[in-house]
Design brief:
The chain is mostly helical. The protein contains three helices and no strands. Helix 2 crosses helix 3. The chain is elongated, with a radius of gyration of 22 Å. The mean pLDDT is 84.
Length: 77
Amino acid sequence: MATKAKRSKTPAKKKSSKATSRVRWTSQNDREMKALIKDQTPARAIATKLKRTEAAVRQRIHKLGLSLRSSKKKARR
């Protein structure tokens, strides 16, 4: 009787062809980002300025409890 070879239930991890280098956020990065948010700079422009991806910027903004939306409310007429 031939026995079947057991297969692992977890799939083999594929190596990415693109190397990722993760750069830690510094307090200086946070201060600069907060200033850009205050000036109502879009996330894409902030990402370019900080040399990070837009997704990384949006994640950091969320983690810090900030918002890209304007906090100024329009006056009613």
